[in-house]
Amino acid sequence: MLEYPAPLLLLFTAIAEFGIIVFVGAMALVRYLQGRRSSSIPTGQYDLVLWPQLQTAGIKDWKTLQQLSGLTVDQVNQLRMGHLSQLSLGQLQQVAALLEWTLDDLLDVYGLSAARQENRALRQEGLRLQAALQDQQQTLMTAWRRDTFAQLQPLLTNYPTVQAMIQMKPDLLAKNVISLFTNLDNLLQQWECQPIGTAWAQVAYDPQLHQPDQPDIAPGEPVYVRFVGYTLGNMILCPAKVSRTLPVSAQP
Fold it and tell me: Could you count the other beta carbons within 10 Å of the beta carbon of residue 205?
């Protein structure tokens, strides 16, 4: 076995100890850098803005934020990268509170606060227009009622008088009463409403124009018009009511 002089042996020992010290130091430096990279060195697109606020709020690293907020590690990464669609509104509010921000402050970091305010303004404008439309509809309805009443006024004025006349004179001739309803014919002409059929006239049953009093009346079957209907252009306002027979009072 070789024996080295004492000075050379001491040199070998010093070199070995120095190598161990260098190795241990290098490993410690690697662990330190890894820890820094995982907790404080910005890696997300928005880390440079979020990280200082974490420190201000007393949150030492991203893992602590993740634990306090209840988010998953992946959700914290989404937050750092700006993928807010992966988080709910409640989660964003929780993060904002931990960072000692309002929700608008947090959204402003991502450039969403202006869009949020614009949406709020558009919603308010929509509500204003809806209220204005309702007011306009109410105004038009009031004007329509006033105009309709003006056209019906002669009929409405005569109707109570007709009732009183019939009660006082049951034998009053009908022709004396019919003349009071001339304004009703004029109103129907102004509205361009056309009658369907003539009262007590015989017609062929048409399911599109007539309402039968019996369900077994077949199309084309002869029927009598009990009560006329009305159309407005191509629209049927109400069908004429028809029957196979005339009322007793109308039979010859």
Answer: 16
